[in-house]
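Appendix B, example 12.
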Amino acid sequence: MTNDQAGLPGELFTTIDHVGIAVPDLDEAIAFYAQAFGVQSVHEETNEEQGVREAMLAVGDGTTRIQLLAPLTPESTIAKFIGRSGPGLQQLAFRVEDVEAVSATLRERGLRLLYDAPKRGTADSRVNFVHPKDTGGVLVELVQPADIGH
């Protein structure tokens, strides 16, 4: 039985894109994941708008990743998260084909999104976030990779 047959909404996500982990020191965390788990960084960047230094670590064939996020300043969202909750799991990111369409559908279903319009994410992806108060405490990120046109 498909979701449509059961009267449930259709699938919005194509896969889990990554899991975001807040860390106080990016270089130390990259080294730990490499030494402990053999997971290597395949992309690193600084996102001034989000206030983070980040690294994407490839898991398995690389289609699923772990994102390590370290604060650039004590005022950044990630610094506040670490101050409130300590280092650890910060978000679950789902890949979508059209971040605007999925955002609109979720709004129609009564969920709050953090941004009115998508922002730039890792590697020029387009992202938005579902408010954790609407998802049982989980910050859900919607990621439209740069290679999916719009």
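The chain has three helices and eight strands. Helices lie at 26-37, 77-85, 99-108.
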